[in-house]
Amino acid sequence: MKSIEQIAAELQGYDPQAISAERVNDFLARLVEPVTATEDLGVFDALGRVLAQDVVSPISVPPHDNSAMDGFAFDSGQLRPDEPLGLRVAGTAFAGKAWAGTVGAGECLKIMTGAIMPPGLDTVVPLEFVKAEGDRVVVPPNVVSAGDNRRLLGEDLMAGEAALRQGQTLGPAALGLLASLGLPTVKVFRRVKVAYFSTGDEILSLGETPREGAVYDSNRYTVFGLLTRLGVEVVDMGVVRDEPAELEAAFRTAALKADAIITSGGVSMGEADHTKAMMKQLGDVAFWRIAMRPGRPMAVGRIDEAGKSAVLFGLPGNPVAVMVTFLAFVRPALQRLMGASPSEPVLLQARSGEALRKKPGRTEYQRGIVTRAPDGALSVRTTGNQGSGVLSSMVEANGLIVLHHGQGNVAVGDPVDVMMFDGAI
Ligand code: AMP
Ligand code: MG
Predict the structure, then answer these.
(1) Which residue from 113, 200, 240, 316 could staple onto 321, CB 3.0 to 4.6 Å apart?
(2) Residue 137: which CATH number?
(3) Which residues surround ligand 2, an ion (CB under 5 A)?
(4) Total structural domains in the chain?
(5) What is the pLDDT of residue 130?
(6) Probe ligand 1: pick from 219, 240, 320, max atoms within 8 Å of CB?
């Protein structure tokens, strides 16, 4: 495990007072070490979990050449251009049962979708294309060519081929694939636990009576949602008052219980509270001013308790800043912790529907609404007020317009990058 000092020394030109957004991810990739423990789970239970081994297909899928249509299977060597082909029906093959007979020259086999194609037959003419009379069918000229409507053995996966890779997050398609290989269980990394608490004396928990200057805690709920969508186990620690003994107890408990700790509030420059002091006292922590908007202040590091170590993400307090820093930095770092292979989010490019003011030298994330313009191109407009406390705009948005570090003002019609929420929010 590397200390903050060691990582800082590895990164050329690292300046905690003006760290770029890209740098933050470099830093976190060095700070966070993936979990190693694994467990074997049934396929249903593995949804959203990270695969801990490559999965090699034990069988070929499909296991036989089979028909892709209901129709008549025959040897395409008998087809002649522009000529009909008359065939005698030798029998019927159903899915799930091998057909035992033989099909000779001038013959075909009535075949159902999924039924095994007997040797020597390579083509299926769909039922609706042929004229049938008694046990005779006529394949009209030029309706099928050799190999049509036949699924080949192993065309999905061949036995011995890598079906899934370690580090893949198992989604619905992967669950189906595992099942198609006949694998009842799968080895995944153990579930990561993330403890979260909100800080600040002005923060009210739900159910508390409103008082002057106080606001209801929203971060606890957005972070809960973001973590749950990510597939980690959430340890909800509520709101912790700005009081050293309470903060100390909370940090120690969190470090003991969880692999990562997320807090919000109390990390900005002018803070008179005890959160930062306690992080400094209990952990190895860097305090950053990130060249970004929203979400400039952030603390990262590690807190150890009773031989256990937890990664710390001290997020800013403003509700939008919490969500943006989570998406930009915490989410990829936690994916790494979960054992998932790094995957850069695919940014879409959209035409800006409005002029955007932007200073080079910081990354800006603006809440955007992406739609398709009448000409078919993607177009994006902002939700308006980009205040870092305006949570309603996060609800309205379907993505974040990412104005990169070096980028300047954007004119109407200029292309901009957008990070779509895509199920993360
Ligand atoms: P701070 O970073 O502690 O200075 O907080 C910045 C702003 O975010 C202040 O206006 C806080 O009241 C607000 N804030 C901090 N924590 C929360 C929270 N959990 N829920 C809603 N607003 C918060
Ligand atoms: Mg505060």
Answers:
(1) 316
(2) 2.170.190.11
(3) 200, 265-266
(4) 4
(5) 97
(6) 219
